[in-house]
Design a protein that fits this description.
Number of strands of chain A: 4
Helix content of chain B: over 70%
Helix content of chain A: 55-70%
Structural class of chain B: mainly alpha
Mean pLDDT of chain A: 70
Strand content of chain A: under 5%
CATH topology of the largest domain in chain A: MetI-like fold
Largest interface: A-B, 52 and 59 residues
Distance between the termini of chain B: 7 Å
Strand content of chain B: under 5%
Number of helices of chain A: 18
Order of helices and strands of chain B: HHHHHHHHHHHH
Mean pLDDT of chain B: 81
Number of domains of chain A: 2
Largest sheet of chain B: none
Largest sheet of chain A: 2 strands, antiparallel
Order of helices and strands of chain A: HHHHEEEHHHHEHHHHHHHHHH
Shape of chain B: flat
Low-confidence stretches of chain B: 318-323
Distance between the termini of chain A: 28 Å
Shape of chain A: elongated
CATH architecture of the largest domain in chain A: Orthogonal Bundle
Structural class of chain A: mainly alpha
Number of domains of chain B: 2
Oligomer: heterodimer
C-alpha cells in the first residue's frame, strides 16, 4: 500500500467513526441549553426534593385515599387539610372533640380518626374488586358505595364526598373529598397543639396544607416530580459511570493496539470481532440477579445495597460496551501513527514516548470525546431498558427506566405517569445525541479544512 | 512477510476452522460465565415453593443432581449439551424439558425477530436513502429528525404507545400471544421501526459521504444520468458495507425483544429467560443463553460471508494484505 493511500485512510476512519454526524448547525445551541438544563436538574441532589417539596421514596400521607391513578388535582381546597364539614363527619359522638390516647412512643390513637379513613380504604377495595379501573368508572363507584352502611353514607356526604348529591361519587369528587378524610397516615399528634390528648375543632380546622404535587403522584402516592428529578439523577449517574468505564477501556486498549500494531493488533481485532458476537445482555441480566442477592446479604440496609448494586451493574454494562469505541480509537491511532507530521517528527529523532504522549494522544482527545458524548445517551437508554425489565436500578431508588415501567403499568389510570418520564428520556437522549453529533460534525469540518 | 502461497480453497478452509475454534471457545466461556453467575447467586430454583419440607427439598435436589459438587454439575451439564440434551426445566415449567420449552418459545422469538429485521431493513433503507440523497435537504431533515426522535424515545415508549393503540375499543388488534396478524402486527412494527431508525442513520451517513465524493461530478460531467449514478453506483457501494452493521443491529433486535415481549405479553424465548433468571431455573437460563449465542454467531458469520461475497473490495483487500 502506498503512503498516499495510507494517508487517505486517516480522514476516512475519522469520517466513518463520526458517521452519525448530521447537518444541523442551528440546533447546537438548544441542544447545549437543554443538556445543561437537564444536567443541572440531575446533578443538583438536594434541589430535587426541594423543588418538588416531597421526597422521592415517601408516599404522601394522603396517598391511601387519593384517587386511583394517583394524580391529585385538587383545585380549591388543597391548601387546607380540614374544614368544618370534616370535623362534623369525623366527630361521631358529637362532643366537638376528637379524643385520643397516647402510646408510650408518643403516637396518638384516635378511634374517631380511624373510622372514616378505614371506610374510605374499604371503598377503594370494593371499587377495585368490582373491576373499576379509571376514576370515572361508574360501575366501580356504585360497587364501592354499595358497601357503605347507611349510617356512614350521611357522614360521607357530610364530608363532602358527594358534592352534587347524585349518590355517585365521581373521580373529581373523590379526589377532592378524600383529602378531607385523609388522616389515616398522618400523625394525629401534629394537630394537638396544646398537647392535651384531644383534638378540638379549632386545632383541626385551618391547618394549612402548603404543598401540592405539581405532576401528581404515582400509584403508591409518591410525588412524581420528586421521583422524576431524582430518577434523572440516578440515571445520569449510572450512565456516566458506565460511559466512563467504557471510555477508559475502549480508549486505552484501542490506542494501545493501534500504536503497537503487528500481530498483537491483528489478534486484538480478532478478539473484538469474537466479543461482538457474545450476547452480553444475558450475562448482564444474570449479573444483576446475582449481585442483587449477594449485596442484599452483605448490607442489611436496602438503600446502600441498591446503590452498590447499581454502580456495580452499570460498571459491568460499561465493561461490555467498549468494542466499537476501541475499534474507533485503534483506527485513530493507526492513522495518526502514519500521519506525515508524526513521520517527520520521528525522522527528526523524537523519541517514541514523546511522540505518543505529546503528539498522538492529544490529537485523539477531541474525536474520542465527541464519540463519548454519543455513548451517554445510548447508555441512558440501556439503563432505562434494564430497569424497565426489573434488572437495573432497584427500589427504593427511582430511575428513568423504573419510572417508565411504572408508567406503562399504570398508563390507563393516568397518562402523565408515562408521559412525564417518556418526555424526560426523549429530551435527555435527544439533546445528548444532537450535542454529540454537532461536536462530531464541527470536528469533521475542522479536519477537512472547512 | 508474506504468508506462504496456498490455494484459495485451503486458506478458506483454514479460516473457517479458525472461526469454528474461536466460536467454540466463546461458547465454552459464555457457558462458564453463566454457570458461575447462576450458581454463585444465593437461592435456588425451589425457593418459590412455599412450605417445602426439608426432606422433599433434599430429594428434589438429588433428583436434579444439584447436590453434587459444582465441578461435577459443570461437566454433567456440558456433556448433556454435547449430546443435545438441554436437561429438565427446574422451576419455570416443572416436569418438562428445557428442549420442549425452548422449542415452543424460540420460534416465536425468531419470527418476531425476522419480521422486525425485515421491517427495519426496508424502513431504514428507504428513509436512509431518501435522507442521504440530498444531505441537508428538507427530506433529510424530516426523516433524520424522526429517526433521532424514535431512537431517543426508546423502545419502551414506542411499545407503550403501541399498547395504548391496542386498548382502543373497536381495534382489530389484540394483546398477548403471537399467533395471528392481530397480535403480531404491533410488536413487529414497534421493534422494526426502532431498529430501522438506527439503520436510517447509518445508511444516511454512508450515502451522504459517498455522494460527496468528487468522482460523481466527473461522471455527471461525462453525461452519466444522475439517476443512474445514484442507483447504480452510489446505492450499492453505500448499502453493502451496511452488512457489517447487520450483526450489531441483530443483537439490538435481540435486546429489544426483551422489552417487546414484556410489553406485548408475547410468550417468546426472551420472556422465558427473564422468568427463568428470576426463578433460578439454572438449566433453562443457560440453555437460552447458549442458544442465543449460537444464533448471534451464525448471524454474524452469514452477514460477513455475504459481505465478502457481494463486495469485490473485500476480496481484493484479502489478497492485497501484507506489508
Amino acid at each position: 500500500m502506498s503512503a498516499a493511500a495510507r494517508n487517505a485512510t486517516g480522514p476516512r476512519v475519522l469520517e466513518t467513526g463520526l458517521a452519525l454526524a448530521g447537518r444541523r448547525g442551528g440546533l447546537c445551541i438548544p441542544a447545549v441549553l437543554l443538556g445543561s438544563l437537564i444536567l443541572v436538574a440531575a446533578l443538583a441532589g438536594p434541589l430535587s426534593s426541594r423543588v418538588a417539596g416531597f421526597r422521592y421514596d415517601q408516599p404522601d400521607p394522603l396517598s391511601p385515599l387519593l384517587a386511583p391513578g394517583g394524580v391529585s388535582v385538587e383545585p380549591h381546597p388543597r391548601s387546607y387539610l380540614a374544614d368544618d364539614a370534616l370535623m362534623d363527619a369525623l366527630d361521631s359522638d358529637g362532643d366537638d372533640v376528637l379524643a385520643c390516647s397516647r402510646s408510650a412512643g408518643g403516637r396518638y390513637y384516635c378511634p374517631e380518626l380511624e373510622e372514616l379513613p378505614g371506610l374510605a380504604s374499604e371503598m377503594r377495595r370494593a371499587f377495585e374488586a368490582a373491576g373499576g379501573r379509571s376514576g370515572a368508572d361508574r360501575k366501580g363507584w356504585d360497587a364501592a358505595l354499595a358497601g357503605v352502611p347507611e349510617r356512614m353514607r350521611n357522614r360521607l356526604e357530610a364530608a363532602a364526598l358527594d358534592r352534587d348529591s347524585d349518590r355517585v361519587v365521581s373521580r373529581d369528587e373523590w379526589a377532592l373529598g378524600t383529602a378531607f378524610l385523609a388522616l389515616d397516615g398522618l400523625d394525629a399528634a401534629g394537630f394537638d397543639q396544646d398537647l392535651d390528648g384531644r383534638i378540638s375543632r379549632q386545632e383541626l380546622v385551618g391547618v394549612p396544607r402548603t404543598r401540592t404535587h405539581l405532576l401528581g403522584t404515582d400509584s403508591l402516592g409518591r410525588d412524581l416530580l420528586a421521583r422524576l428529578l431524582y430518577g434523572l439523577r440516578v440515571s445520569m449517574l449510572v450512565s456516566l459511570a458506565a460511559a466512563t468505564v467504557s471510555l477508559l477501556l475502549g480508549t486505552l486498549l484501542g490506542l494501545l493496539s493501534g500504536l503497537v500494531g503487528g500481530a498483537a493488533d491483528r489478534a486484538f481485532l480478532r478478539l473484538l470481532e469474537v466479543l461482538q458476537s457474545v450476547p452480553f445482555i444475558f450475562l448482564v441480566i444474570l449479573l444483576s440477579v446475582f449481585s442483587r442477592d449477594v449485596l442484599k446479604m452483605r448490607w442489611q440496609e436496602a438503600e446502600s445495597a441498591a446503590l452498590a448494586q447499581a454502580v456495580l451493574l452499570f460498571a459491568a454494562l460499561g465493561a461490555v460496551q467498549w468494542f466499537s469505541l476501541a475499534r474507533y480509537a485503534r483506527g485513530l491511532a493507526v492513522s495518526l501513527k502514519e500521519a506525515p507530521f508524526v513521520r517527520s517528527l520521528a525522522g527528526m529523532g523524537f523519541s517514541t514516548i514523546r511522540l505518543v504522549a505529546r503528539h498522538i494522544v492529544p490529537n485523539t482527545v477531541l474525536p474520542i470525546s465527541a464519540y463519548a458524548v454519543l455513548l451517554v445517551p445510548a447508555l441512558v437508554l440501556e439503563e432505562a431498558f434494564l430497569s424497565f425489565l426489573g434488572f437495573g436500578i432497584q427500589p427504593p431508588y427511582p430511575s428513568l427506566g423504573i419510572l417508565l415501567g411504572e408508567g406503562v403499568a399504570h398508563m390507563a389510570d393516568s397518562p402523565l405517569l408515562l408521559l412525564a418520564p417518556a418526555g424526560t428520556v426523549l429530551m435527555l437522549a435527544w439533546s445528548l445525541n444532537l450535542l454529540g453529533e454537532e461536536l462530531a460534525r464541527r470536528l469533521a469540518g475542522q479536519r477537512s479544512g472547512k | 512477510m508474506r504468508p506462504p502461497a496456498t490455494s484459495p480453497f485451503m486458506s478458506g478452509l483454514r479460516m473457517a476452522a479458525a472461526r469454528l475454534a474461536a466460536a467454540l471457545a466463546v461458547l465454552v466461556l459464555v457457558y462458564s460465565a453463566s454457570f458461575a453467575l447462576m450458581r454463585l447467586a444465593p437461592g435456588g430454583p425451589f425457593d418459590r415453593i412455599q412450605g417445602l419440607p426439608e426432606q422433599t427439598l433434599a430429594n428434589l435436589e438429588r433428583r436434579f443432581g444439584l447436590d453434587r459438587p459444582w465441578w461435577e454439575q459443570y461437566f454433567v451439564t456440558l456433556s448433556g449439551y454435547l449430546r443435545g440434551d438441554l436437561g429438565p426445566s427446574l422451576s419455570f415449567a416443572p416436569g418438562r424439558t428445557v428442549g420442549e420449552v425452548l422449542s415452543e418459545a424460540l420460534p416465536v422469538s425468531l419470527e418476531l425477530g425476522f419480521w422486525a429485521l425485515l421491517v427495519a431493513v426496508l424502513v431504514g433503507a428507504a428513509a436512509g436513502l431518501a435522507a442521504g440523497r440530498r444531505p441537508g435537504g428538507s427530506l433529510d431533515r424530516v426523516t433524520s429528525g424522526i429517526s433521532l426522535a424514535v431512537i431517543s424515545a426508546s423502545l419502551i415508549v414506542l411499545g407503550a404507545l403501541g399498547r395504548e393503540l391496542l386498548g382502543q375499543p373497536g381495534s382489530p388488534l389484540r394483546l398477548g400471544g403471537f399467533d395471528s396478524w392481530r397480535n403480531k402486527l404491533l410488536p413487529v412494527l414497534t421493534l422494526g421501526i426502532s431498529s430501522g431508525a438506527v439503520f436510517q442513520r447509518l445508511i444516511r451517513a454512508n450515502v451522504a459521504q459517498r455522494m460527496s465524493e468528487g468522482m460523481w461530478i466527473a461522471a455527471a460531467a461525462r453525461g452519466v444520468p444522475r439517476i443512474r449514478i445514484f442507483w447504480r453506483y452510489v446505492v450499492p457501494s453505500a448499502l453493502i458495507p451496511m452488512l457489517d452493521y447487520a450483526g450489531p443491529v441483530v443483537a439490538g433486535i435481540l435486546t429489544g425483544s426483551f422489552v417487546v415481549e414484556a410489553i406485548f405479553e408475547i410468550p417468546g424465548a426472551a420472556a422465558c429467560f427473564v422468568h427463568g433468571a428470576q426463578g433460578r431455573d439454572y438449566t433453562l437460563v443457560m440453555a437460552a443463553i447458549l442458544v442465543y449465542a449460537v444464533l448471534l454467531m451464525l448471524c454474524n458469520f452469514v452477514f460477513e460471508t455475504l459481505h465478502s461475497f457481494l463486495d469485490p473490495r473485500q476480496r481484493l483487500e484479502g489478497s492485497r494484505r501484507g506489508p
